[in-house]
Amino acid sequence: MKTKGAILWGTDQEWSVEEIEVGDPVAGEVQIRMETAGMCHSDHHIVTGATPMPAFPVMGGHEGAGVITKLGPNCPADLAVGDHVILSFIPACGRCPACVAGHMALCDLGAGLLMGQAISDGTYRVQARGENVIPMCLLGTFTPYMTVHHTSVVKIDPTIPFDVACLVGCGVPTGFGSSTHVAQVQPGETVVIAGVGGVGMSALQGAVLAGASKVVAIDPNPWKREQAQKFGATHTYESMAAAIMPLMDATEGRMAEKVILTMGEMHGDYIEEGLILTGKAGTLVVTSMGRMDAGEVKMNSFLLSMLQKTVKGCIFGGGNARQDAPRLLQLYKAGQLNLDDMVTRSYSLEEINQGYRDMLEGKNIRGIIRYTEADW
């Protein structure tokens, strides 16, 4: 079918909204009419080259929610036309060694996420200007219609608004799980969240619901620090350096049991700053993405070992999208997880470049693209 999509033709260029062709679903695939798409910082990493792509063009977007319109052969029996679904940016086969071990966020299917070939048959589902297009994370939610493998699809409660549902495909479970699954925040602990955009605000809420007694939000943006208090932050500071002495005073020198780095772009010297805020036997969780070609990390290895600190990486919150997404949406329905205030602004697909400018200028916690009948 012919529709439109936001295409990137090279690094350091703007997204180009233009006509594309989306293939029909083959065995194991579904076609989805998109309602909303989240504008995550990870897509901007493709623009800057921080996440290098094997080729261009690329269609962006890996957060999204919509309605199934077509099913290919051999799809799971629990999926049907009309179902409301979200897209999981890492597919989960349920059979590979990682999935069987309970690490579905590390499913072996993730090895091909940036290559563009469909899981089902190794061909491409999207073309633009006669060329094959690589959809971000084999999804590409910056289009009103998409064809994807069923392992990237999670059925959700149809009463959930699409505006918030799209967030549980990446940002919310990544941040929330950083606190609950990876850091394993315990009641009464002091937790530091450095960087409070969409992922950071979710990590903050995860720490609050896990029972943290002190939740410290760090961000250079005054508006985001103010917003962090709405989501449960007890203390806010403009930088990790500025938080050192106040945190020392507030904890009688013990510092934080858990520190989670969720800034928009990771740099190697942030590790050392985070470890300074991490107490004895504490855990530093690195959720932020850095440049794939950056290899330098700064840390004091003496204090790392002598104070028995731990540094842990984190992808997708260390969770399981099929289990976590419905549970997070149930927390939302129960009024325990604030997703409404996470969505700062909505944009049309044609406004995508303005949306990313707003993100980079710190005006949004999360911007979303909302599709309408005019797009379908």
TrEMBL record:
Q: Which domain of life is it from?
A: Bacteria
Domain Enoyl reductase (ER), which positions? 10-369
Report if keyword Metal-binding is assigned: yes
Q: Which CDD domains match?
A: Zn_ADH_class_III
Query: Which terms does the record give in the GO molecular function aspect?
Result: oxidoreductase activity
Q: Which InterPro entries match?
A: ADH-like_C, ADH-like_N, ADH_Zn_actinomycetes, ADH_Zn_CS, ER, GroES-like_sf, NAD(P)-bd_dom_sf
Under SMART domains, the record lists: PKS_ER
Cofactors named for this entry: Zn(2+)
- Name the SUPFAM superfamilies for this protein: GroES-like (SSF50129), NAD(P)-binding Rossmann-fold domains (SSF51735)
Q: Which reactions appear under catalytic activity for this entry?
A: a secondary alcohol + NAD(+) = a ketone + NADH + H(+); a primary alcohol + NAD(+) = an aldehyde + NADH + H(+)
Q: What is its EC number?
A: 1.1.1.1
Q: Which Pfam families match?
A: ADH_N (PF08240), ADH_zinc_N (PF00107)
The record's keywords, sorted A to Z, are: Metal-binding, NAD, Oxidoreductase, Zinc
> Which PROSITE patterns has this protein been placed in?
ADH_ZINC
**Record family assignment:** Belongs to the zinc-containing alcohol dehydrogenase family.
Matches recorded under PANTHER family: ALCOHOL DEHYDROGENASE, ALCOHOL DEHYDROGENASE CLASS-3
What NCBIfam families does UniProt report for this protein, alphabetically?
Rxyl_3153
Q: What is this protein called?
A: alcohol dehydrogenase
Q: Which organism does this record belong to? A: Nocardia halotolerans
